[in-house]
Design goal:
Length: 243
Amino acid sequence: MESTGAGSAPAVRVTAADDLPAALRALGLHPPRPAVVVVGGAGGLDEAALDGLRPAFAVGVAPVLERCGAVGVDGGTQSGVMRLFGEARAATRASFPLVGVAAAGLVRLPHERGSGRASAPAALEPHHTHFVIVPGTKWGAEAPWIARVATVLAGGAPSVTVLANGGEIAYADIQFSVDAGRPVVVIAGSGRTADELVAALAGAPADERAAALAESGLIRAVPMDSPGALAESLAAALEPAAT
């Protein structure tokens, strides 16, 4: 475990799952605490899609975390749903911790001078409050770690995953949540993987991975144009911590 820095946000680098409890304590994050995982579209979301999803984060996600004393967990880079999560936290002047979990081979921390990568490293989202840097050189390497971080942070408290849009990696993200027994709220109408899952939930023809996940009984959908319904769904999932 190695402590480092990501601009003004503290960061820690881990190499083994067993390091996570101590790493999170080093960041000042102490379980049990309700957790909300956000996964889904990143570079595949254009500005119009981002604008369409902004109310879901500003009304349906950020205020619920603040009210429930929850911690947010996502992939931490400045793109797609991670950018929206960070911007919503800033826009609502929220104080909940927002933890980005990013693969070491794909991002560069501000104090690192050389990347040693064939392509430019991804930027970290500037409104996140903490970062956990994990092993990996390919997109998707962070997926199991996002799930593990949320599980460790929640401890005995409730946790829930939100899926908006998403590509191939989103299937792995949702599978890790389901494997952890974590309920998943899918934003219907946000496109791609999210809408495949919505179709599967309705019994319509869908990707076989979506159909298998829908059978878990842990997945429900809310419409993208109803951020209030999203807020209600998240609050219900976290209610034992909010009462």
